[in-house]
Design goal:
Layout (H helix, E strand, L loop, with lengths): L21 H38 L6 H18 L3 H28 L2
The protein binds prephenic acid (PRE).
Protein name: Chorismate mutase
GO molecular function, one term: chorismate mutase activity
Organism: Cellulomonas persica
Length: 116
């Protein structure tokens, strides 16, 4: 059984202490919504990369693809620029995620090698 199989109630927004300025409470509520969206978006990305990992393991392809990463970084930096987000931060964020994906791919490749 995985964590995803366990029924759980909807996750409420964070509980803020009484007496904080309403503007701060409103902004924090918005931040909570954005964080929730980020978590769901990341979960979808990892679902897709897991399938990529299986495909690569089955075909004996290397877990990482530096050429693809370079193209992604170029595109992401341009998007960040357009969106008024620090491109250096955007690149670091992608690097952080991709490093985790590669770790997953390596584990899948290991499992695949271990199969009879
Ligand atoms: O596109 C791939 O080949 C992937 O394995 C996915 C991904 C990514 O997370 O975007 C991860 C590792 C690769 O080095 C490049 C990209």
């Amino acid at each position: 059984m995985t964590d995803q199989d366990v029924p759980h109630p909807p996750v409420p927004a964070t509980q803020e202490p009484a007496g904080i300025p309403p503007e701060l409470a409103r902004l924090r509520h918005s931040i909570d919504n954005i964080d929730a969206a980020l978590v769901y978006l990341l979960a979808e990305r990892f679902k897709a990369t897991k399938q990529v990992g299986v495909l690569k393991a089955q075909r004996g392809l290397p877990p990482s693809d530096p050429g693809r990463e370079e193209r992604q970084v170029t595109r992401l930096r341009a998007l960040a620029h357009e969106a008024d987000l620090d491109p250096v931060f955007a690149e670091k964020f992608l690097e952080f995620i991709v490093a985790e994906v590669i770790r997953h791919h390596e584990a899948l490749a290991q499992d695949h090698t271990g199969e009879a």
